Amino acid sequence: MSTPLPTRLDGVPLAVRTQNLTKRFGRQTALDDVSLQVPEGAVYVLIGPNGAGKSTTLKVLLDLVRADSGTAEVCGVDPRTRGPEARAQTGYVPERLDWGYGWMRVGRLLEHHAAYFPAWDREYAARLGRIFGIEPERRMGTLSKGQSRRVHLIMALAHRPPVLVLDEPTDGLDPVMLDEALGLLAEHVADTPTTVLVSTHQVHDVERLADHVGVMRDGRLVLQAPRDVLHRDLRRYRAEVPEGWAGAPELNGAVLRRGALGREIQWTIWGGERDVAQRLARAGAVVRDAAPLTLQEAAITLLSRKDQP
């Protein structure tokens, strides 16, 4: 049972799409044949460790980095040929917040940013500023990481773009402000037709928002699926096995993580629960439990998986 993990989302309209993106920086391959598919209206969480290629992928969508090969689209617009139009439809929070405006006061930066977006909602921006505790007279260069992150969230949200591209948006936020920011993001998505693409390695921060998941490792997209499919098909099986058990050859390629204590195994396996249980039973195992994983647990399993034949 060699079960390839799903990497395509077929049959749904897409707000963001890349096809076969490849990018190298010198000898290092940052992106290796990445085909990202973000459905319209989704909250798509792109998970991976630092250096996996997440930020490079997002920058390609905004024409801030050019891929060596492959294509990208944001709301049907090719950012390589129509970069300003793609960026106009996008609210962006970068991973690194130093945009060279350290000398500028917060209020002036927001006014400057608003000038580029005719749909800028001043009342909404002011409300967000109050909730985030923004001080308009402060200079950007004097703000903490978390305070700068809040300013950039206002810049991303206040023109109510059809697509939000958020690169580590919770980084630097204290627990109270993190909860506030996630609540505002959920409220924003409920009130405004929006597709959200969130890149993070802090999975637990955004778990409650995600309805689609992508997992990147070493520049490759190793999984891409709706959250409910991940919940249904990735499970941890606890089973009793006989002495000298030879394993379950029918599941080769589908077992993502293995653990054992005495005659009890705990295997994390991709596949339909009934089919997997039947294959384990044919191999002599007695399944005692099959439990879905949290998004955090699924991410750890997928990122720590060793490639199997």
TrEMBL record:
The UniProt record lists the keyword Transmembrane helix: no
Alphabetical list of SUPFAM superfamilies matching this protein: P-loop containing nucleoside triphosphate hydrolases (SSF52540)
Superkingdom: Bacteria
One Pfam match: ABC_tran
Keywords noted in UniProt: ATP-binding, Nucleotide-binding
CDD domains registered for this protein in UniProt: ABC_DR_subfamily_A
Domain ABC transporter: 16-243
GO MF terms held by the record: ATP binding; ATP hydrolysis activity
Xref: PANTHER family: SKFA PEPTIDE EXPORT ATP-BINDING PROTEIN SKFE (PTHR43158)
Name of the protein this chain belongs to: ABC-2 type transport system ATP-binding protein
